[in-house]
Every structure is written in C-alpha cells, then in structure tokens.
Design a protein that fits this description.
By secondary structure, the chain is an alpha/beta fold. The chain is 49% helix and 20% strand. An eight-stranded mixed beta barrel has the order 11-12-14-15-16-17-18-19, surrounded by four helices. It has a five-stranded parallel sheet with strand order 2-1-3-4-5, sandwiched between helices. A five-stranded mixed sheet has the order 7-8-6-9-10, with helices on both faces. Bound molecules: ligand C2E and calcium ion (2 copies).
Length: 576
C-alpha cells in the first residue's frame, strides 16, 4: 500500500480540532498537545475560522476559540456559527485568560459548550476535548433514536419530544393533525409489503415537506398512522387535502390512495402530546370511509366520548370484581323445527350509574386497553359454570358459543386457559363453540390456522363470526378448518325491501354447504326471513324473531318450554 494513501486514510479517520487564535505561539502550543490524537486545523481570526470550518465541517469535531482577535472576534464568530445550521452543532470550547465565573456564563450564553483557562495544562485540555466529543456522540445517538428507520421522519417518542419543545418555546397557535391511509392493509395485501413500505416512505416525505414549510413537524406513530404539528392558519385544511391529493395522483400505483386528516386545535399546551394525538385520531376515525370527507375537527361530542372511555377504563377492574358484568344468552334455532340447538353468550354491563350497557359501548375500549382477555375469560368461566350446573340438574345440554377476541388469540396460553376451565368444571369441549370474527382470519393467517387446528384437535367447535362483513375471506375458507359459518346480519338487512342481498345470501349458504360447513344466519327478525332461509337450506338462525339475548334464568325457562313444545310437536308428528 503506498505510503500517502495509508496516511490519507488515517487523516480521514482522525477527528479534527480547529484552533482559532491570533497568537501564533498559543496556536502552536495547542497544536503540539493535540497533534498526536487529532487532525489539527488552525485559523487566526473568526473570519478565517469560518472559511476553514465550511470546508472541513464533516471532520471538525471541536472548536477551540480565543475571544479577542482582530478582524472577527470570538463573540462575533459564535453568533455566525450558531446561526449556520451546517456548523452550529460543532461544540465550541472558549479559551480565556482568567478564571472568572461571569465570563464563563457569558460565553455559554453565546452558544459555547465549555470554557478553558490559560495557562494550558495538557491533560486538562485533552480531557475537556474528549468530553465534548463524547457528548456530541451521545447527542447524535439520541437523535437517531428519535427517527423512524423506515421513513426517516420522527418516530413517536421523537415527535412528542420535539413537539413539546416547540410548543413550549413558540407562542404561535398550533394544531395536532393525525392522518392515515384509507385501506392501507389492502395495499399490503394486494401489492406486497415492499410496495406498502414505499408508499409510507413517500407519504412521510411529502408530509414532512408540507410540515416543514409551515414551521411544523411530521412523525410516524405506527403502521400507516402519522402525525403533524402545524401552525394554525385559516384554510390550511383544504390546502393540505389538495396537496396530498395531487401528490398521490403522481404516485405510481393503480389503486387510488386516499388520506384523511383529524385535527385537534391545541388550547392547553400543558397536556401530553400523546393525549392531543389521541384526540386528533378520534376526529379522523369519525370520517372513516365517508365519501368526500377528508378532514374533521375534534369536537365536544368526541370529548364526551373520551371522558366516557376514561371513566370506563377507571372502573372496569372494580366492576369485574363486583360482578357487574352479566352473561346473557341468545338462542340459535334449527330453522326447520325452531328447536333451540345452541346459544350465544353475550356480555352486558350492569353499571350502577349508567344502567345496562350493551357491549358496543365497552368492548371496543376493552379491546384497545387489553382488558378484553380478562373479561372474555370471565364470560367463558360463567358459561362453563352454567353448563356444569345444567349437567348436575340433569337438564339437556346444548352447546354454548362464546366470543373470542383477536387479542385472546395472541396470548400464548389461550388454549391452556380454556382447557383449565373445561377441566375444572368437567365440561365436554364439544359443548363450547368459539366464535372468531372473520377479519381476524385474514390478519395472521399461519398463526390463526395453527390455533384453529389445535382447537379442533381438542374437540372445540370453531365458528367464523360475521362472515361477509370483511373482504377476501373466500380463499382462506378452504384452508381454515372452521365448523360453522355465521352469516353476517347485513345479508338479511333490508331483506324485505327488495331482496337486494338475496343472491349473496344464497351464494354464502351454498358455499358453506359445498365446504361441508353448517351455516347460521344472524339477525333473523321476521317470519319471511325464516321462510326464505329455509328455502335456501340454511340450517340455523339467530335473531329477535326467536328471542333477544336474555339473562340466564330467563333463557333456562324458555329452553324448558321450547323443548316441551318440541317434544309435543315431535309426538304429534309421530302420531300423524
Ligand atoms: P356479535 O358476536 O356479532 O353478536 C351478535 C349481535 O347481534 C349481538 O349484539 C346481538 O344482540 C345482536 N342481535 C341478535 N339478533 C339480532 C337481530 O335480530 N337483529 C339485530 N339488529 N341484532 C341482533 P350485542 O349483544 O350488542 O353484541 C355486540 C357485539 O359485541 C357482538 O357481536 C360481539 O362482537 C361483541 N361481544 C358481545 N359479547 C362479547 C363477549 O363476551 N366477548 C367479546 N369479545 N365480544 C363480545
Ligand atoms: Ca358472535
Ligand atoms: Ca356476529
């Protein structure tokens, strides 16, 4: 290896120190001390220092600065350096004559990082410089921790930190804007993860530009959920919407990409940025899927919703301990005989202040905060307990379906927990049916496939809930070994008004048959629906026509009379 090139590499690897001093003797004294460890640059005054610095800003790690020099003194140099983004972060150690606290404070207020007094003590100088370099490295590291590796914009922590600082230091009016891509999952599913990533990178780039133009920030919270902090200006929402629209038109993807924004106008700057973000998210959720509505503001009704959410979160644990959660049952009926062939367990919350709450008001919150796994376990236990009692009382046993949340399935001990219950109460596993909603199967197919297989091997029946409510469930239907299809209520909605969805209903029942699955129609409300479902050979129905969900003791009475009725109708049939 030629000598020069070896030397050249060494020089590049060495960190640089810039000595700025008009006194030649001082410059060479310092250079002597530093030469061994660092690449030394020198300048006689502030102006020359700026020239050297701009040419070598990548290499210079620390500046040693004399304050009193001709042409441009140290103070002037500091003010220019601090204002120049490309060199502002290089730490400056000021050299002064006397050990004087006031002077130290003064230079620090000009942007210097540290301060060194003459005469020069070799060890002290090397240590100070070493300290500054380490501090700088930690700073860089901290910065890289704040950045989202995929898109290069801020990550959640980085955004929150920066936003908090900006809000503290700048008095302008600001908004927090949450935004995401409509049906982003479809982009991943149809075009692949890489294409999804590219789209996220593109969106991050254009929105970072948009935010920067307005003195704001842009960050990615997770997945396709982004956030911006923007100064409030009238009409900027429209501007933002058309900006994204134009940018997305230029983006090379067959599918039309729609981005929606939720805006929270910051009034109280002391609340946590994550809380502000949650509010902006609530606003954007309100317009999900609404044609032509591309932005929305957080308002008071949403505030009430959040308060309720908070109240629910605060009281849920105690409510569970106090037995405020009740299990209701709704029968599943054989559509030919109208006999009860099963029932679904549906939870209710008997809230001392708010009365009987339907699950729609609290289940989504529990799913978000994770409490759902505890609640579901409670429901399963209540059901097992009831079945054990029925067994003891010699009642006829019909299978009970319980709802399994997506979060339950991701607990590794999910099956153990259920087995523990069936063991404890000595219940046949075939008496417990697991309802898993359709969209869950599309998410993590291998894991779910594995889980459903295991459930089947253990003797539990698995029902695909809300079949037809999501998308693309046809392919996986052939792969996932479910036992029953529960046809989503919307197939029957508006049934009498023109039979618009009749074809899909017929198709779905036929599909279930061809796969050897039973089907249950949900939302059966009228006699006409029962007749139509019978005609289609759908086996079971569930809905208000037969019974609303009712408390367990009421259900037991109904079950008794239903079975008596059934016995007598069977007898009639035998006699005829
Ligand atoms: P789902 O599993 O689809 O339950 C069926 C919902 O349809 C129930 O609403 C039921 O009361 C309602 N329904 C039954 N028949 C009819 C009808 O003829 N017409 C109409 N319009 N509606 C009918 P509910 O009880 O309000 O439950 C709502 C959702 O909450 C359930 O939907 C389920 O996803 C969830 N859920 C209920 N209990 C639990 C539970 O213990 N655990 C979990 N994870 N989720 C639960
Ligand atoms: Ca269900
Ligand atoms: Ca359902």
């Amino acid at each position: 290896m030629p000598f020069t090139s070896y030397w050249g590499e060494c020089m590049v690897n060495k960190k640089g120190i810039l000595i700025v001093d008009d006194n030649e003797l001082d410059r060479s004294l310092l250079a002597d001390i530093l030469q061994e460890k660092y690449e030394v640059f020198t300048a006689e005054n502030g102006r020359e220092a700026l020239t050297v610095l701009r040419a070598n800003f990548k290499q210079v790690a620390v500046i040693l600065l004399d304050l009193y020099m001709p042409v441009m003194n140290g103070y002037e140099f500091l003010s220019v350096q601090q204002a120049d983004e490309s060199i502002a972060e290089i730490p400056v150690i000021v050299i002064t004559q006397q050990d004087n606290n006031d002077a130290e404070i003064e230079v620090l207020s000009y942007g210097a990082s540290a301060y060194l007094t003459k005469p020069y003590v070799r060890e002290l100088i090397l240590q100070k410089i070493g300290d500054e370099i380490r501090k700088q490295e930690v700073d860089h590291l901290m910065k890289s921790i704040d950045v989202d590796t995929l898109t290069g914009c801020y990550n959640r922590d980085g955004f929150c930190k920066k936003a908090q600082i900006l809000l503290r230091e700048d008095e302008a009016a600001y908004d927090i804007v949450a935004f995401d891509i409509e049906q982003f999952r479809v982009v991943n599913d149809v075009y692949g993860i890489h294409e999804g990533d590219r789209l996220l990178q593109y969106l991050a780039r254009i929105m970072t530009g948009f935010a920067r133009e307005r003195g704001g920030l842009c960050g990615r919270i997770s997945g396709d959920c982004f956030v911006m902090l923007l100064t409030r200006k009238s009409g900027y929402e429209e501007e933002m919407v058309s900006y994204v629209d134009r940018a997305m038109e230029r983006y090379p993807l067959q599918m039309k990409i729609v981005v929606r924004f939720g805006i929270y106008q910051i009034e109280n700057r002391t609340i946590d940025v994550t809380v502000m973000y949650d509010r902006a998210v609530l606003a954007v959720k309100r317009i999900k899927g609404k044609y032509g509505e591309l932005y929305a503001y957080f308002d008071d009704s949403m505030r009430d919703e959040l308060l309720l959410e908070k109240e629910i979160t605060n009281s849920m644990q105690q409510a569970l301990a106090d037995g405020e959660f009740l299990v209701y049952l709704q029968p599943k009926c054989n559509l030919k005989t109208e006999e009860y062939v099963g029932a679904e367990a549906l939870i209710r919350w008997q809230n001392p202040e708010r009365g009987l709450l339907p699950p729609g008001q609290f289940i989504p919150i529990f799913e978000k905060n994770g409490f759902i796994t505890e609640v579901d376990l409670y429901v399963w236990e209540q059901v097992c307990q009831m079945l054990a009692r029925w067994k003891k009382e010699n009642r006829p046993l019909i299978p009970i379906s319980v709802n399994v949340s997506r979060a339950d399935l991701y607990h590794s001990d999910f099956l153990d927990r259920i087995l523990e219950l069936t063991d404890k109460y000595d219940i046949e596993s075939s008496l417990l049916h697991m309802e898993i909603t359709e969209t869950v199967y599309t998410e993590n197919q291998n894991q779910i496939l594995d889980m459903v297989n295991q459930m089947g091997e253990l003797g539990f029946k698995v029902e695909m809930d809300d079949f037809g409510s999501g998308y693309s469930s046809l392919n996986m239907l052939t792969e996932i070994p479910v036992d029953v299809l529960k046809l989503d209520m919307r197939f029957l909605e508006g049934y009498s008004a023109g039979k618009a969805k009749g074809n899909i209903l017929e198709f779905s029942v036929g599909l279930a048959k061809s796969l050897g699955l039973e089907s249950v129609a949900e939302g059966v409300e009228t006699r006409e629906m029962v007749d139509e479902l019978r005609r289609l050979n759908c086996e079971m129905g569930q809905g208000y026509y037969f019974s609303r969900p009712i408390p367990i003791h009421e259900f037991e009475q109904k079950l008794d009379s239903n079975q008596k009725l059934d016995n007598s109708s069977q007898k009639l049939a035998v006699n005829a």
